[in-house]
Amino acid sequence: MQFGHFDDEAREYVIETPHTPYPWINYLGAQEFFGLVSHTGGGYCFYRDAKMRRLTRYRYNNTPVDDGGRFFSINDGGDVWSPSYRPYKTELDFFETRHGMGYTRITGERGGLRASVLLFVPVDVNAEIHQVTVTNTSDAAKSFSMFSFVEFCLWNAEDDQTNYQRNLSIGEVEVEDGAIYHKTEYRERRNHYAVYGVNAPIAGFDTDRDTYLGYGNGFHEAAVPHAGKSENSVASGWYPCASHQLEIELAPGESKTYTFVLGYLENAEDDKWESLGVINKTGAKALLARFATNESTDAEFAKLKAYWDQLLGSYTVESGDDKLNRMVNIWNQYQCMVTYNMSRSASYFETGMGRGMGFRDSSQDLLGFVHLVPERARERIIDIASTQFEDGSAYHQYQPLTKRGNHALGSGFNDDPLWLIAGVGAYVKETGDFGILDEMVPFDNDESKAQSLMEHLKRSFNHPLEKAGPHGLPLIGRADWNDCLNLNCFSSTPGESFQTTENQAGGVAESVFIAGMFAAIGPDYAVLARRRGDDAEADRAESAVADMKQAVVDHGWDGEWFLRAYDFYGNKVGTNDTDEGKIWIEPQGYCIMGGIGIDDGKAIKALDSCRERLNTPHGMVLQNPAYTTYKIELGEVSTYPPGYKENGGIFCHNNPWVIIAETIVGRAEYAWEYYKQIAPAYREEISEVHRLEPYAYAQMIAGKDASRHGEAKNSWLTGTASWNFVTVSQYLLGVRADYDGLVVDPCIGEEVGEYTVRRQIRGATYVINVKSTGAKGARLTVDGVPIEGNTVPYAVAGSIVQVTATL
Amino acid sequence: MQFGHFDDEAREYVIETPHTPYPWINYLGAQEFFGLVSHTGGGYCFYRDAKMRRLTRYRYNNTPVDDGGRFFSINDGGDVWSPSYRPYKTELDFFETRHGMGYTRITGERGGLRASVLLFVPVDVNAEIHQVTVTNTSDAAKSFSMFSFVEFCLWNAEDDQTNYQRNLSIGEVEVEDGAIYHKTEYRERRNHYAVYGVNAPIAGFDTDRDTYLGYGNGFHEAAVPHAGKSENSVASGWYPCASHQLEIELAPGESKTYTFVLGYLENAEDDKWESLGVINKTGAKALLARFATNESTDAEFAKLKAYWDQLLGSYTVESGDDKLNRMVNIWNQYQCMVTYNMSRSASYFETGMGRGMGFRDSSQDLLGFVHLVPERARERIIDIASTQFEDGSAYHQYQPLTKRGNHALGSGFNDDPLWLIAGVGAYVKETGDFGILDEMVPFDNDESKAQSLMEHLKRSFNHPLEKAGPHGLPLIGRADWNDCLNLNCFSSTPGESFQTTENQAGGVAESVFIAGMFAAIGPDYAVLARRRGDDAEADRAESAVADMKQAVVDHGWDGEWFLRAYDFYGNKVGTNDTDEGKIWIEPQGYCIMGGIGIDDGKAIKALDSCRERLNTPHGMVLQNPAYTTYKIELGEVSTYPPGYKENGGIFCHNNPWVIIAETIVGRAEYAWEYYKQIAPAYREEISEVHRLEPYAYAQMIAGKDASRHGEAKNSWLTGTASWNFVTVSQYLLGVRADYDGLVVDPCIGEEVGEYTVRRQIRGATYVINVKSTGAKGARLTVDGVPIEGNTVPYAVAGSIVQVTATL
């Protein structure tokens, strides 16, 4: 069952009904100012940090759900409704929400009046624009009132929802020339404020939520829109909000357009005040002036469109499969941008309060982002590496505002260091910028300890070698990629965090997954060392990788699949010898990505075991059979009810590793089948089961042991989009950057048939026509000339290179 | 304007309309299980700790407000309503909520059907009882459906509202014999669960909130009650809830009663399971069996009534002023019990997540609680003292579950130590239990460092002497009673906590308020030392007190009032020489309580200054003029908009100190006037201005600089009730426990006229008839015999002593 459709031409998903199974959201902004907006207008916005600088209030888990946002209310002769349907739920004659690239357009029509709200954050502007067009679709003249509404958050979103004994006394606003200024705490240590204005005369305003709603009312009962008259309330404490009243007259067929601006402004410390208690509004007035005409707003919107045209031009595919095209060309890349910006910080499942940028998360997010804006990827790499410790380990997370490591969460996740090598490798392959390796980068943000980035990579590389266990496999530490496999934790205290609790010392818990990562990622380090002329180091690295692979072969193989780990006591995890958790997905994917078992049949065996034991029509579960009881020696993974999350749920983040592995062993049909199982566009038709957005990956889909098998949760989360984009673009479609050229090595299902990839990299454009699909091993021609192997050498900037690939 | 009335006979406040200006709440429970319930059924319940063991979910700052709670829905032939009015807001023919002592009864009637819900927590039972009586008030037979509903919180209330990426996957329930069991996380580290059952056959149930409400609906749109049929949903993740359906038939005039039990149960670690994944429900079944008949529920309710009869018997007054009677006999004492139990942890303004028990808070709460249950006061004293450090300082807060000091907030609030002496002094005066001074009590919860409680008091006493500044006044540290006067903080970072931020070293900030406290409380330490035979220590203490009083006279007097402090640089705070914050309330009250300026006219001058500069018809503001800009050298006090909170708001906690001071100087009429300004019963008639409960003190009333002057916030907060009860019972009515006898020293307005206090203490009963009022200095007779002075010696247990007091 569908609730909308893709409009690929416009790069939009069109939601046709307010009654989706969950709020389906979009993101506004790509630089410093961001908004989340649902198809019924819910959500919030913030400047840079979703916790520390939140402009508008949003209540997660509110009832009614998703009732806070930017709402436009129409009172047409006493008939009160909103084009976003919510909060009034007044039935509409027409409803449509179009989520596009960095913008959303919500349109509703009722009783001969159409209202369309375009929401976007302009490029390089710290503001949300709400451009509202009202059209009289009836035969008679119309005279009606329209009310805007946003509710302000008192800046720190966490404090805002906990510290009422203070917060209900501090709200302050100003109203000047029809613009509403939110200045809570500006009197003291803040130098920033918000403004909500409109480019038209207003008939009234409200800034006190209890006045606007009427005390005790829900948004659906809002008093002012129902009365059809603003109260001109000035908030003093309690709940500051901003609402304008516009009185509008429309002849039959006439349209009028209004631009509302919700902006964030800062003043210099010594320039905060116009007079005692009155904000210096110079910045806000300039912002409002910039959007004084609807034409200037249109121009800013056109700039945003152009910005995305440019971004999405680096990698495109034309195939006969619309779903594939839209995932690759639009939505998967779009989500990569979102997760690059948000990491795991802000979605409808992450409140934006608790999480910073992850060392592991952001390194992986880079993999799918590096081709979009390489210069921002470079900056991110330096930020991430700056939080590394001198021993190669790393803060597991860092704060986006300060870029400092998060002490509360600390270190000890032993896969973290290797991800840095993966991110840097991807960046250098994309750009050829080996110079980044010479950048001096601090350890633990201490400039006095700065070393070259290459030295950082060396310590990353050495870390799993230095922290190796009795089988020569890397010790797992607090946890590896699977945050919830906590082999040294032994927690018995309710609610205690498995990720931060004091770990037990003296164990020998090793991770076969990290060993696989080392095998897969280590060679990049060797190459980088060799390119810098350090052959000895390169040789040492290659030798270490070979040793690790042998250790996996010797101690990481269970007979039909790769083991997952050894626990604290040295017992196997992920073995056929146990009743539950026999086989885990992560080592199967990553060991094969590391080239282990390719030649001796282990890889195929492992993948067949995945197919037999992990696969479902909704994707591959993380492990199987799920744990039915809590295993103190395994930690959080066993706390979930079977089929959910790490306990047998389907992770869209690690399914790609198996898909890549299938392409490595050349099983194109399996790889393709697995890709389609989880790719949201292919799940659109079962939206009533999947429930979340059909244009964005979710972290998790409930597994086969769950009563809600197939239901997705945690959409828009870090890492997932990147890995899926890497998988489809580099391994299925088979076009991936390498150090000296573009590898073209397709391995995708036969049903896809002929397709063409356009790839812009290092200034040149490659037009790659893949003639046929269904297997691996295509032979290439470059500008008509056959070549050996599958690497198309990089051409000079500006050139257009024609490539064909034929089985 | 009133929204209800007091029913003093029943000890109830009767709310006559759902449309109060704010949710007016009550507390259930007095031992380990507590509930908060508003007059429209909102609120939640928890076991011992409002953060860590919350049974039901409540959304602070929800819209619509206060929509979560325990709701009973009636579907009477398609007409859906609730006796609590919310969440449906279906108009009722009759509505009444009676908040009583530990119980609330909500009654609604519509269309010839009356439903009355009695909510209470029985004595010594870890459960909320919801006893529902439905009555057919019509002339025809009735057949209708009734639905119960509670939504479960996933135990840790903070995690519950932040960690959705995990929490939405973990919810689990069981349903057995019509009882619904909430067992989220029971599979792992928890050994506790909740049950919601009813003593009648059910026609259906629901445990999945989205099914009960219908996805996306608000509580007012709940699908199941509107459909008139339960779906028998079993929650798997998302939002577990509990709802029963009862099918009820009533003849005209007939009533039926049902008892619902919402209980908390624990199992031993090795006895958790009945079978794989199935809870051992022995405890729950015993609980439900205990309330299987309505008669047994009635008996438990009678026990609760008797419990409160006994508690409130220790101090009663009969006067011609009903408001005075009800404050003293019922509501002020009741609030003392609530704040003793809750400290500042859980109200409709405190979420119950952020705060533990305060060292300062709980010591002051003792002052109004010690006569109610002295043995619990004793336990609390030991708990508090156990968190003290060896140097006399103290953790500012400690956790109720662990009774350990709160490291996050730490120490350095230099008034804290003295409050312990005040609390112990009050306890010993009430009980004569000098033995408590010999109790061995740890420092910093380290048993190996245990010393006698007397030694703790010594270190408390010495602390302000050892931490004294250049004027011989105590250094203020992080802050004194006024948490928001932060003289060493110098914070410029937005949102940074003034209470926990690193303080600047090297300053000389002194507190005249702490000096006043020392003068007022220090003598109790001297007495205790002398009673233990340590005359040298007593002499030393008395001498130190005298020196401190002299230091205040020499350096703490501004000419017309007492200074508030010296700042970091040694500049005066609270002086006529500055434009703002000229005069502060705290030192005026406490210095006079410490006996400073009584003889030389300073006290009268200071109190006249308070009257002139601080007093308003709504109480005395904290300081004046309020600060119009942020003063980095003063801290949080200057962050509030003028008139709110510490920046010129009216604190009901420190107004009593001025009232006591007025009784000390003998100005009965002023004392009485000030008492009435803030006492809630006297503000009942201006409920539309005051807005909060007319039966409970609020922390703060907006001051004269605020646009909402007279509006109260933060009701039910720690300390306030205690100080007001101390003031009215011990100083206005003038009956207070001393070491050797009961002091009878009334000082109350003439309009009160003759009154009688009955006081039970140390096993004897004192019937004190005060013949006339309007001044201080009554002469006493004891059993008809005139005595010298105003101390009635303690009589032997069991005796009844008749006292008269005549001007």
Describe this structure in words.
- Chains A, B: Pfam families: GH94_b-supersand, Glyco_hydro_94.
- Chains A, B: Residues 11-283 form the Glycosyl hydrolase 94 supersandwich domain.
- Chains A, B: Residues 307-734 form the Glycosyl hydrolase 94 catalytic domain.
- Chains A, B: It comes from Demequina lutea.
- Chains A, B: It is an enzyme of class 2 (transferase).
- Two copies of one chain form a homodimer.
- In chain A, 28% of the residues lie in helices and 26% in strands.
- Chain A is an alpha+beta fold and 807 residues long.
- Chain A folds into three domains: 4-310, Distorted Sandwich (Beta-galactosidase, Chain A, domain 5), CATH 2.70.98.40; 475-662, Alpha/alpha barrel (Glycosyltransferase); 734-806, Sandwich (Maltose phosphorylase, domain 3).
- In chain A, the strands form twelve sheets. Chain A has a ten-stranded antiparallel beta sheet, covered by helices on one side.
- In chain A, helix 12 packs parallel to helix 14 and helix 14 (585-593) packs parallel to helix 16 (655-664).
- Chains A and B meet through helix 2 of A and helix 2 of B.
